[in-house]
Write a structure and sequence with these properties.
Blueprint lengths: L2 H11 L3 H26 L5 H27 L13 H28 L9 H6 L4 H31 L5 H14 L7 H18 L2 H19 L5
Helix pairs in contact: 2-3, 3-6, 4-8, 4-9, 6-7, 6-9, 7-8, 8-9
């Protein structure tokens, strides 16, 4: 796709302030409703881990339904969300290089926190989900973190939110805002900064190649490696 067609697609993908506020409100409501529902069920059903998996999968499916609803109501094509093909050989070195950069940031951040006496909370939902070293839980985690989350979250946070914010702010202001939203909506204070930096890297890939595919690939790689490490299995 040439630059003129890409620009036209970007214009069709922009949301008004009202529409964007409704999308963000929908995302927030999905988190709150599912969180309250999960807490309510945990008090009545002792299988907490099953409910956490159910919450995680239902969150991604709810996001997918939000995207599908937006697509139907606005009569968008998938290309309007940023689903443009790009040759893998052209983007793979950049993906791997940026992934290495995120590791450097994560290690530096972990060292900084450790030196100040801070450690990840054992009760964190991601620790509970990713720390179960069984093949059954590993498959569930890989499907959730390595497939569903990259596909759905990149379409929503980069394709819809970042793409729409660019109509009202400059590129980097939009990148910062979308990365903040992406990290904050994970509701994990300890990992806010590295997830924010990951969001910035994902925005950079999306903006550079005008395609979601490179961002999805890096997001998936990041989550798959994190899943295998948390499960204490060899990569």
């Amino acid at each position: 796709m040439n630059e003129e067609n890409q620009s036209s697609s970007l214009l069709k993908r922009n949301l008004s302030w009202v529409d964007l506020a409704m999308v963000l409100g929908g995302i927030f409501c999905i988190y709150i409703i599912l969180a309250v529902g999960t807490i309510w069920l945990i008090e009545r059903w002792p299988h907490e881990r099953i409910l956490m998996y159910f919450n995680a999968f239902l969150t991604q499916l709810s996001f997918a339904l939000l995207i599908w609803t937006l697509k139907r109501m606005r009569h968008w094509k998938w290309a309007d969300f940023g689903w443009h093909s790009v040759p893998l050989k052209n983007v793979l070195p950049k993906i791997l290089g940026l992934y290495a950069l995120t590791w450097i940031i994560n290690i530096g951040y972990a060292i900084f926190l450790y030196q100040h006496g801070l450690t990840p909370p054992n009760t964190d939902v991601y620790t509970k989900l990713l720390g179960q070293a069984t093949w059954y839980s590993l498959i569930l985690n890989l499907v959730l973190a390595g497939v569903l989350a990259p596909l759905v979250e990149e379409t929503l946070f980069r394709g819809v939110i970042f793409g729409s914010l660019q109509a009202y702010f400059g590129k980097w202001t939009s990148a910062v805002l979308s990365a903040i939203i992406f990290s904050a909506l994970h509701f994990q204070a300890y990992g806010f900064f590295p997830r924010f930096m990951l969001g910035m890297v994902l925005v950079y890939l999306y903006d550079k190649y005008k395609s979601l595919y490179p961002a999805i690939a890096l997001h998936a790689l990041n989550n798959i490696v994190a899943t295998l490490i948390a499960a204490s299995l060899p990569i």
